[in-house]
Every structure is written in C-alpha cells, then in structure tokens.
Amino acid sequence: MHRTIGGLAAVTATALLLAACGSTDDGAAEAPGDEAVSVTEEQTADDGEELTVQTAAVFAEPDATAPAMTYDPEAIPVGAEAMLTVTTDEDETAVRLTVDGLEPDREFGAHAHVGRCGLDPADSGPHYQDEADPEAGPDAPSTDPAFANPDNELWLDFTTDDQGSAEVSAQVPWNFRDGGAQSLVIHEHGTATGDGEAGTAGDRLACVDVVW
Q: Could you tell me which residues come within 8 angstroms of residue 100 by beta carbon, excluding any fewer than 6 positions away?
C-alpha cells in the first residue's frame, strides 16, 4: 500500500503558482502567461522501502527564481516540458526522463549535477558521482572513465523524434546522498566516454532543479 507525502507537492505547487501570477491593483491575481515556469513534485513511499519523486517542469528564460530554465531557446524553447521520475529503494535508483517541445531529431546529453540551476549555466556545478574522483576539483571536472561513467554518474542521453519528444530511462546500483545532487542539466550532444573527455557533452542548454 502506497502512502502519499503530500506536503512537499502542495507547498511547491502553491508557491510556484503565486510566483508565476502577477497581481492587479484590486488584489486579483492575473493568469500566468505562456512563459510561466512551474515545477511540481510528488513523493510516494511504500512502507518506507521505496520512494518515488516526480518533477514536472516547463522551461523559462533564465531567472534567479526559475526552477527550470533554458540557456539556448533554439534547442530548448521557452515552454518546452520535461518530466523526471526518480524511484529509489534500499540499494538502487531508477530514473525516467520524458521531454516534449525540444528541437526535433537531435541528440542531447543529460546528467545529474551537484548544484542548483542559476543564471550562469556553470552554477549547477559538476556531475554528481557516487564515488568522487579524487583528482577532480571545482576547476577540473572529472574526465577519467573510471569515475566519469554511467555506472558512477547518472546519464540520461536521448534523441528527440520529429516532434521534439523523447523518453529515456537509467538505473544505477546506488542511492543519491542527501543534498548531493540538486539538478538535471541537458547538454548540446551525447556524452563522451574516452580517456580525458569522459562525461563531457558540450554546452549546458537547460537546467531543472530536482529533488533526487
């Protein structure tokens, strides 16, 4: 039997609705425009053993308060959508990403990152790693295939169809550390695997704040 942890979802949805709506002089709220951004989250747990967190996002222009933003509106237009479902149990994490409204017929890279989204694409920091590369640092991201690989990081590379939609899943044999990862970043091309370039996927095109 599943139980729903409704507080987070309700608070998140309410706060984002208020942020997206303006106010008229008489106090009535205006409807959000086409460029309004939203992230809604839902958490469920099965007897304390399995937890699912779902994040739905609509990409907006970069803004200090936006939880989902695009840095390249040609590849990921304002109004494009993403849905991320993260399910964890005792010893593994399964993730499913669906996107809609992106540039059609194009390959993208996507990874879990340690920082939150910001006005500067670099604000989200490096990739989250289950076992951190001891040779990496803030100015030298890990490119060693022994650490920068889809078993030690979360990679969700995908290719959109002719409608700009895609769905991809990944599963890793570990759980995220609390607060260790805070966003999903979409990159300009698929992820490299070779020595000295492993984990690289080009420019950061968009970012979504995520509860992992």
A: 80, 81, 82, 163, 164, 165
Note whether 63 and 69 are within 8 A (CB).
yes
Q: Is 18 left (phi over 0), alpha (psi -120 to 50) or beta?
A: alpha
Measure Cα distances from 137 to 14, 125, 127, 130, 178 in Å: 38, 10, 11, 15, 20
Indicate which CATH number applies to the domain containing 133: 2.60.40
Of the two residues 12 and 88, the one the predictor is more confident about is 88
In this prediction, residues 106-131 reach a mean pLDDT of 97
Q: How many domains does the chain have?
A: 1
Structural domain span for residue 54: 2-209
pTM score of the predicted model = 0.80
> Where would I find the beta strands (DSSP E) of 36-181?
39-46, 50-58, 68-70, 81-88, 93-100, 107-113, 158-159, 166-172
In 3D, which of 99, 83, 77 has the Cα closest to residue 205? 77
Give pLDDT tens digits for 63-116: 999 999 999 999 999 999 999 999 999 889 999 999 999 999 999 999 999 999
**CA dihedral (166, 105, 206, 108) positive or negative:** positive
